[in-house]
């Protein structure tokens, strides 16, 4: 078989099998000649045949590009590129342009700070911003030195186990968010499941089981969607004697019109509740940043257990989020979404 036919059949097969994708540029005549050992004339002849049959097209001063065709086979060498998931166009009406502007502002104003390693507990600028925001928006008094930054709820659950202890019995809602039970199982702790009622965990379940740590999602339990009543929240606080509550306050920023529903942390003295929240619901699922408020009696235990560990959230992301919160953009975003949700 003549060389140009050999090359023609090879490239044609690679186009049909998907090795060369629609819109992809073929190697130049010179490069293809180097790859195959054929002359440039041979390559040009093969490319001309492919063009005449509609497999490729020439673009002036750019080269040969693959046309879209129906595949007529497959090849074990074909590489199927991954596609990014499509968004649904909602994403809580998040203003991405404003986020980009915030990134630019931080890069311009804080270039040197971005190259300093973050403390284990997270950058002070973000911890301060979260503290101020919680007081303004939720009426929660959370000293910055008790706020810990982490990369999402699962990591914060793990930290909670570290500081509360693996020898404890952990009670969770039934049903509950599956990742809660998974993390506890992976940490090797004992888990008790407490049946949910219409306003939270049933009282007989709370009184009839022994546990040291109660993990609850009082604002909106998943998948039941139950919101614990004020009476039930008081019961949660009263049922714990020498133990602790892990309050997972996911999506609580989107409270109904009026005053925000008080958190368990805000209802007590703050010394019995490990408070956890993230920005994955309030901003974006891609925002892998969360925070934990640690009770005063557990601060030294945290420092001992986490000594030597680096904060898992990149410094740039911490500074950008801190600026987004401090500028008021975060609260304006929350209020806009809440208004839309409550129409």
Record the SSE blueprint.
Elements: H1 3-17, H2 29-36, H3 40-52, E1 56-59, E2 63-66, H4 96-109, H5 124-138, E3 147-150, H6 153-164, E4 169-174, H7 178-186, E5 190-195, H8 203-208, E6 213-216, H9 230-239, E7 244-248, H10 264-267, E8 273-278, E9 290-293, H11 299-305, H12 315-326, H13 329-341
Parallel strand pairs: 4-5, 4-6, 6-7, 7-8
Antiparallel strand pairs: 1-2, 3-9, 8-9
Give the proportion of residues in helices.
40-55%
User: Mean pLDDT, rounded to whole units?
Assistant: 86
- Report the radius of gyration as a whole number of Å: 29 Å
Strand portion: 5-15%
Structural class from helices and strands?
Answer: alpha/beta
Q: In sequence order, what are the helices and strands, one letter per element?
A: HHHEEHHEHEHEHEHEHEEHHH
Distance between the termini: 73 Å
Please sum up the structure shown:
The chain contains 13 helices and nine strands.
Structural features, described:
With 343 residues, the protein is an alpha/beta fold. The chain has a 7-stranded mixed β-sheet, with helices on both faces. Helix 2 packs across helix 3 and helix 4 packs across helix 12. The chain is elongated, with a radius of gyration of 29 Å. 32% of the residues are buried.
Features:
elongated; two-stranded antiparallel ribbon; 13% strand; alpha/beta; seven-stranded mixed beta sheet; 343 residues; 9 strands
